[in-house]
Amino acid sequence: MAESTTPTYTICQADGLYPDDTVEQQIFAPQQGQKYNLEYFQANLWPSQALEPKPWSAIPEDVRQRIHGILVLKLPFTREDVALFPNLKVILRMGVGYDRLDRVALAEKNITVCNCPDYGTAEVADHALALALTLRRGILLHNDRQRATPPAPYAVIETPLVRRLQRSTFGILGLGRIGTAAAIRAKAFGFHVLFYDPYSPNGFDKSLDIERTKDIKELFRRSNVLSIHCPCTRQTRESVGYDLLSLLPPGSVLVNTARGEIVDLDGVERCLKEGILAGAGLDVMPVEPVPDDNVHSLIQAYRRKEEWLEGRMVMTCHSAFYSPESFVDIRVKSAQTMRDVLIDGLDGNIITPDME
Fold this sequence. Notes:
The chain is of the alpha/beta class and about 350 residues long. It has helices spanning about 20-30, 60-65, 80, 105-110, 120-135, 140-145, 175-190, 205-210, 215-220, 240-245, 265-275, 295-305, 325-345; strands at about 10-15, 35-40, 70, 90-95, 110-115, 170-175, 190-195, 210, 225-230, 250-255, 275-280, 315, 350. One of its GO terms (molecular function) is transcription corepressor activity.
């Protein structure tokens, strides 16, 4: 009678985010009645302070051939990368979006794709409202002018940025987990909340006591603040350009904490110059990190502190998700989902090939 072999699960955290592997070893450890070997390691392809990533091929070939599960935060995973891992079974994006994974190539190899959708919901919603309020209350403008030489007079500033929040319209593009959390926060400040999301179930507006529109153009026409919370898909990529932004009421504020690829920066710059946008709060950019040799003219103007942008633009570095607590959540929840799917054979946060 042939002896049964003990399976081995080899799991890699690609980026190299953590000082130890205590959390992962505890979560991946065999539970009662289970018997298997575990190999877990961090590849250190893009640790926190590194400006550029190493390629996936930097992992030695013999190690790549053993890997069954990959946890990845920042790195893209292309068709060419898929070919480097012949025994890969599960890849998990440690975040909400999965647009940087080649899902077509992964599906062809029957590799399961997962994400971690619930680790930083509160932080991103808080960040979106913070950007909106910083602009809409003129906080950034006062900050800039009081630090000038000489400082501006100690007085109110007449500006299209500053408006009463109550009964103005806070528009939300995409009412998922984060969009819903942003809606609740906006309501607490007295905004009238209007959203557009063709995938949201009927009646969701009633449960939150907010207004829904089935027309994306109406969303833009009526929103004094427009906050983007949709995923980056084939339909939404580069979908918010001048044609939609120019529909906003004059003096509006745009906030993007979703994905930079959704918004056309040319359109944002033009609307800021034309006064359609009074301000823009951007946590995400079309290309991240912003390449030194190809900096968009809007970002150049922002970094040069050009006068026309004074107090009108805030840029944060895809950090809306971050707090020490959320970074713990993303680590624990990602590892638990990897265990559920790869080791225990359960369904957990699986992204099927047909999902947008």
